[in-house]
Amino acid sequence: MSNSTIQADSADAKLQASIDAAAKSIWKENKVSKFQTGLDKIEDKIMNKDPTQSAYYAMGSKLVADNSAIVQEVVSAAATTVNIKAIEDGIKSFAESSQVLMKALDAVSQVHPAVGVVVLAFKAVVTLELKRRSNDHKVIVIQLKMKDMVSVLLDLRSIKDPRQKARDGTTIEGRIQDLMGRIAKDIDECGNTCQAYTAKHTLVKIIKSISWEGKLSEYADLFDQHRKDIAFAINVHTTLGVESANVKLDGLTESARTIEEGVNMLSLFRMLDSPREKEIMELIRANGGAKECMENDAVLKKLAAAKASHVTDSKGFVDPVKLGEIRKDLKEDIEDALKNNYALFEKKMALQRQDFVDNVDKSVVRESDRVISALKSGPHDRVVDKDLHDIWKEMGWKSSVKARHFVLAVHDHFIQKLGDNTAQDHLETHSDNGGGTEISFVMGKAGDEDDSWTLQYINLVRVPAILEAFDDDGSGFINVVEVNDFTSSRPKGWSLLHWIAYWAEGWHYTIWGYRNKIFSILSEMYGVVDQKNVHPANRSVIDLYLSSPALEQVERLTKSVTPYTEQNTAILEEKFRVYANEREERLKNKLETVDWNIDGLDTLSLITGRGRIEQNLFPLLYLVLRRHLSILRLASEDTLDPTVLEVPAESISTIMDAVSLRMKHLLAVLKMRGSDTSALLGNVAFGMFKLLNDPTLAKDEVLAEDEAEEVILPDISEEETKAELESINKNGSVFTFLTDPDGYEEVDKLEFDEDAGSEEHGSLHGVWTGHCSYDEDGHTDGLMQINITHLEGNTFEGTGMDRVDSFSIDGEITTTTANGHELTFKMGYHSLREEGTEFGFEFKGTFDTSTLEVKGVWGALDDDAIGTFLITRRPAFARRFLYNQQEFSKNRAHARWRFALDTVRHQVRQQLWSKSYFEERMVMKKRYIHLRVRADIEKLYSVNPANQLTASDVIEMKRIERVLLPPDGRYYESLAMLATQMLCIHRKIYCDGCYASIIGSRLICLDCMTADLSNEIDMCELCIDNTASNDSFEHHPSHDSLLVFRTLHNRKKRATIEIAKEFIIAGKEFFGNSDNEVECVSCGCPVEMPCWLCIDTECEGTFICAACQSKKDPTYTKNSHTATHPLVRLSHPVASKKNTVEGTIDSLHSRFTEDMADVRTRMGTLEETIKSYEVAVNKRLEEIIGSYEAMVDQRITTLEDKVEQRLLKMEELLLRVLSGAPAAQSSV
């Protein structure tokens, strides 16, 4: 037998042994319980003789007969009994057992390449799931089903040759190849479903649980079937005699199941509900059920306000952004959600598969540095790098060593090595004394280059930085795995010293450069929103992005980094710039792969790779923020789509979530080292976590414009801008047209047609108008017009329009009766068809030829009915003047005449283009937009009661919606959306007077404010002149205040407040001089205090009287003042600097007079209070004394009566004694 054959057999034996070992580590032998053993003994006793003659049999038969219904119920329940303990154990051990299974499957796929597609899909899906920090138990259950399915593939270990043919001429490879393709596809789709489900908010998961959990259950059933198919294919192949006739599958796979077949997955899901989920379910039931929560905005908002929903902020207010996302997800069809999610999921799967390949390649390359002996002589032999191996061996370290000792030993080793001039490249070979395999080391002097330059950076000063590079978990100890991970991650062509020098010095230099770039980007971002040429509708979109807490955390991060102060950086640029650029390009390519959408920690892990997040944090933030800046720069070109910055904001939040998790881990580790964890954390990663850990420091250390080095960002060329736009437009448009007047161009197509058509269907031909109503409350989406243009046989076609879009009609008459026709038709929106989306509605109804009405039900295509519809021949414009049922019942003739007169008058005004016609349209348009904006705001935000829609407002808005012509409805709707988007909404700022969200102007009290700006009094425009309070302050309208009309971001808050205080002092001093007079910039009248002063740099000395500022829409005719400039309120004058002594005396006298008057008032109030208390006390005392006197009088009277009675009896007794009469028995 040849050596190659022996080696091959040996390799096969090792592979078979590894598969068997893996299988046994996954599956545990089933043990029979004592209870089961007892049952078996009873069964044996019964079955040893004729069962029908047994007393047990008779007794059992009678019991079953007497309780047949109960027995059947128990049997049914037992069929789906869930071993919840086993499932919970499976969930807890899912990560560990999956890792073992994946290694075993890799070994199987080496022998059977046909299963590789399934193994790769399974590994990718499970690895992505394991990268999530929070795993949904329901998702894990489905992946346990998937795991149980692929575990059957381990039975292939008994088939050693995949190409050997069975008696029917087939190979196992050919038998399972198609099946493997289908399974891989199902695994991918299941992974997409699990990810889409996990991304949804808990409220969405629970409210739509029937849809989502039903979808998950389908995959559980599918994997059960695939499991059977795999087992059947393997059993058939082995039965056909491929292996020895005595080969028998041991059936270990049958005991590997975590979840048995036949389990009702929906019931299992209920068992796995968390306490929070159960609490939310109870809230949903208490609020009318899932359907009511989906369809009633008020109910959904109430549900979101519950603490368990996690939709509220720290103050208990509902987060409108989260509420909007929940409402959007509730309306989204599950299939659409899966389709939308799959594009990103597919890209993430591609990255994960590539990551598998890269890790294999890296392992092959690095492990070729040194061939490790088969017989290990110590922990040092597991160290791959030759130099580190020698150090580990020489120092006699075990599996781990203190990080500082390790770094110092490395430093000394290379100092000595580079000082040895006789060192030459050589190949060293020696044999293991035990007769084991030879160990070969490939090494050079210190690498492929002269590394002497590195020693200036590998010294005691830089020990902490080097220590961090090796000590990945921050434990203070370095183990063999960390050493190998460090050496295997170095760039190709770099020596170990070069790599160590990078982390000692080059990393700090690199991140400081990125820090300055990020700072410049942030400065430009905050400057964009203040540019005059930015479209007003874009400000709210940009403000929402800039208000993200994550962006503030990024700013703290950049502020925290210890400055790099070394001046001589030429050698650093030479040695490290190429690597930094390559890393940046690598990150950019991965970001482009996922369309710059970092939707979760799993995606982030795929982009940054393994290791500490801080390693790639700053280049990643630079790339992401630079991309976001390119979008913000477009704000002056056109109106941005309101959702265009949602994904960018989510991406930044995901990155900072990972940073927070890393910081928590470091704090936990550092806590074990010493008590002052904050100080220790400030030394980690050049201090980048310092301000994130202690936000109180960050409050006072807001970045200043002149603090960072001036960095000129590379210009974005026109070609790059186009490429950016094309990339962004893949998943949605950057720009949007907020106003929609296009409907007016299509309205001419809906004129009445004089042609009556055929005799049978003639009355169906022409224009119809009406409404589609929802069953719940009769609400409609506005007027709908349909024009039936073609009739042929029983089919008809036409066009139409509603507030959404124009559409086409395709229908048929199904039945003809004496009174009309039964018909059905479908409508499809034109714009969606152009985009390749088939979306519309289906209508089924009856056409009554006598009344010329078509009515019936409508709903989504191939779905249940949503509501009812009614269309008639009545012209669309005439519906505005149609009488209601109450008016018609009261006086039919009057109602009809009024309808006719109003309709004719409207037509005449329209044809003559009269002024009254356009004035009437303008009034209706403004009124509808006003009501619609208030309604939209009320859906998402907490609103001051004075701004809430009344019942009559709602009725009026619905009435207008019902009568607006479709083009008017479309246009007015778009104007309302534009008006809403142009509102200034101060995110997460609430009025301390009415506790409503502040929308429009925001008053900030400068007197009721802590030094660190963490607490203050804020007021909405309706509460400006009211008092208010919070836990720390009592606010009065006379306090100095700042009024802002745009979002005041934290980055500019302190500077703006300081400027406001300076203007207040100057303004009061101005009024303190009696010679100064000033006119109001609005009305031109002389201004007196209290008044308002503009603090914009372009409007120096601009005053506004209180009367003008209180107007709804004040006009300004002087200076360059606009309605968006910030103002300060001046309430009390102070002394003028021009006349200090007199001014001071007058001011003191005035203040003294005011204070004395206040003291007198308060003393008078106090005296009145004391008098009232005195009166009350006296009255109470009199009442108490009176009650006591009455009680004493009563008791004395009673006592006197008793004494008198006793005396009378004694007197009677004495008289009898004296008279000699016999004494009667007395009670005395």
Describe, in plain words, how this protein is organized in 3D.
The protein is an alpha+beta fold and 1228 residues long. The strands form 6 sheets. It has an 8-stranded antiparallel β-barrel. A 6-stranded antiparallel sheet has the order 17-16-20-23-21-22. β16 (1002-1009) and β17 (1016-1020) form a beta hairpin. The longest helix is centred in the last third of the chain and has 80 residues, at 1140-1219. It is globular. The C terminus is likely disordered.
Task: Summarize, please.
Helix content is 54%, strand content 11%.
What are the main properties of this structure?
alpha+beta, 23 strands, globular, disordered C terminus, about 1250 residues
**How many DSSP E strands?**
23
Multimer state? single chain
Portion of residues within helices:
40-55%
SS content category:
alpha+beta
End-to-end CA span: 137 Å
Principal-axes shape call: globular
> Mean of residue pLDDT?
76
- Low-confidence spans: pLDDT under 50, at least 5 residues? 26-36, 46-52, 74-80, 242-256, 363-376, 421-448, 699-709, 752-761, 1135-1140, 1223-1228
Largest sheet: 8 strands, antiparallel, barrel
Gyration radius from CA atoms, angstroms: 42 Å
Please give the count of helices. Answer: 42
Strand order of the largest sheet: 6-7-8-9-10-11-12-13
Beta content comes to 5-15%
